[in-house]
Structure formats: structure tokens, C-alpha cells
Amino acid sequence: MRRRDFVAALGSAAVAWPLVARAQQSAMPVIGFLSSRLPDEAKQSVTAFRSGLRTTGHVGGQNVVIEYRWAGGEYSRLPGLAADLVQRGVAVLAATGGEPSALAAKAATSTIPIVFTIGGDPVKVGLVSSLNRPGGNATGVTLLSALADTKRLGLLNEAVPVTGVFGVLLNPHYPTAQGQSWDLQEAGRAIGRPIQIVKAGNDQELEEAFATFARGRFVALLVAADPFFTVRRDRITALAAQVKLPAIYELREYAEAGGLMSYGISLADGYRQAGVYTGQVLKGAKPADLPVLQPTKFEFVINLKTAETLGIKFSENVLSLVDDVIE
Q1: Which of 10, 100, 123, 132 is most buried, judged by most C-beta within 10 A?
Q2: CA 231, CA 245: separation in Å to the nearest integer?
Q3: Taking Cα atoms as reference points, which of 21, 31, 29 lies closest to residue 66?
């Protein structure tokens, strides 16, 4: 072969290899991973999701492609991100990070299968027809995080049995916010505890909310279940420490970040189950036939270092309920 022909052939191969690689990648099924959260903050959840996928034989980058879209707690971005994934022609939409993501996915497509992770009742918000027989194109996992807010209020009441007002931090833009407000107000009346709800739906309002907590006669704080707050958990636990308020949160990740207490399910388990369902759908299962999964175990976590800083001494009754202690 003449040198000129060899160089030409080499150049053609150099062009062809990327084309082949792209063709091979495009031949793989594509999962659209839509999240209301942030990639760095959600690393453990993504790892758990991919672990669930692997149990069905699907490995990202090997026999399946995962396209990620992140809203960073800005729910208004989700419809556009969902539409982008639908236009991309994904095989499955994994709508994670609560109701806003799932509802955006549901609004974007009635044909592409959707596997969601949410915090409340999927029937009530219109995602499925029933838990056992979802119908339509969506199923997934409910973490029951929003529905457990009243239980958290009871635990907070036992942990901080002093007279005074409990503050509740609530995002008015979360789809279940009104229901959360009603439930918490009713739960407060049931235990004889005055509740004051302070709303925050953006970063400025979050700072203003804690300024309100600092000025008022609040004795404790409940941070309502909401991915907007989860994304900002480091900031929220730091603000709670600044105003010296004992607080309870939905996920152990808050307690690990310095929060006093948390009560809820394992976020990793929920994402792992969503990964399993996503893999099953890729194998041909229909969302309409896959029952919505619910957690069977909740864990109560306390941070002893934070308790010591705040001067909180847990009663024997509260300690008997604890599942894990961070020291």
C-alpha cells in the first residue's frame, strides 16, 4: 500500500470509530433520569438506583444509557427538562425527587413508561388509579415522607416537652403543601401544641424564615418533607444550629449533616427499588401492572453531639424508640 493510501485509510478509520461508537451507544436503550435534586447532593441516591438496575442485568454505559436532568430544587424547570427527555426518545422516564418531578413527567408523556419516587399518595395527586393496579404509564415508589410529618411532630413533642410554639418550615410550592399544613395543624391541636407555619420557597425566603424563628418564641422546629429542603439540608441544619432550635427532619441525611433528629425511610432503599422497577420495565413489564411500592420500615435517628450542643436530654421513652444514634 502506498503511503498516501495508508494515510487516507487511517484518516477514514479515525472518523469511522467515533461513528461506530455512537451507533453502538444509540442502539442501547436510554433511561431518562429526571430529578428535582442536584447531582452532587444526590450521589448516594443515584448509586442506589444504579444498584437496583444491576439486579435486572442493566449496567449504565455497558448495555443501557442513562441521561440525567437536574432541576436543583427549582421545580419550574422540571417541565422543560421532562419535555427534553421525551424528545430524546427515552425508553423509560425515571422521575425522582418527589411529586414535582413525577407530575412533570406525567404531563410530558402518556406513552413512555414512568417510574417515580415520591413522598405522598400517588392516587391523590393523580399519578396512578390505584396502588395495586396503577393503570396508565406510571408506577414507582412512594416513600411516605410527607405523610409521616405528623409522626415527626409527635416525636418532637416528646423530645422537647417544654411549653411553647413549634415552628414548621413549609414550601408553599410543593404540590402537597396544603395537605401537609392541614395535617400538621390538626396534629398540633390533637397534642395541645401550638403550631406556626413559616413558608419558604426560595433561598431568600429560607433565610427570612430562620430570621423569623430567631425573633419568635419558638421552642422547636419541624422541617416538612420536601426535596427543595433536602437539596439545602446542609444550609438548613446550619441555620437551625445558629438559632439554637432543636429540629426534626424527614431523612437521616439531615441528622448526618448535624440535624438533631430524623424520622423516615431509607432514601437509598427507595431509589434502589425504583432502579429495579426501571430495569423490569426495560425487560417488558408494564407500569400498569406493577403495584406502587411502599416502605415497611421507618427509622428514628438522633444526633447526640447536636443534642449535647443544644442542651437536650432525651427521656428514656424517646431513647427506647431510637433506631440509630450518630455520635
Answers
A1: 100
A2: 20
A3: 31
CATH topology of domain 146-264+298-326: Rossmann fold (3.40.50)
Show me where the domains of the chain are located.
3-144+267-289, 146-264+298-326
Helices (H), the chain: 3-27, 43-54, 78-88, 99-108, 149-159, 177-190, 203-215, 227-231, 233-242, 252-256, 267-282, 304-310, 316-321
| Residue 149 phi, psi (nearest 5) | -60, -40
Residue 26's pLDDT is 54
- Domain 3-144+267-289: top CATH class: alpha beta
Place of cell 396512578: 128
Model pLDDT for residues 256-290, shown as the tens digit of each residue: 999 999 999 999 999 999 999 999 999 999 999 99
Helices (H), 109-202: 149-159, 177-190
pTM of the model: 0.87
For 258, what's the count of Cα atoms within 13 Å in the CB-facing half-sphere? 15
Amino acid at 62: Q
> What is the CB neighbour count within 10 angstroms for residue 260?
30
pLDDT at 19 over 60: no
**Long-range contacts from 203-208, C-beta under 8 angstroms, 24+ separation:** 203/232, 206/232, 206/235, 206/236, 206/239, 207/239
Return d(Cα 276, Cα 173) in angstroms, integer.
30
Q: Work out whether strand 299-303 and strand 261-264 pair parallel, antiparallel, or are unpaired.
A: antiparallel
- pLDDT at residue number 4: 44
Residue 213 and residue 236: Cα distance in Å, rounded?
A: 12
The whole-chain average pLDDT of the chain stands at 91
Distance of CA 147 to the CA centre of its chain: 14
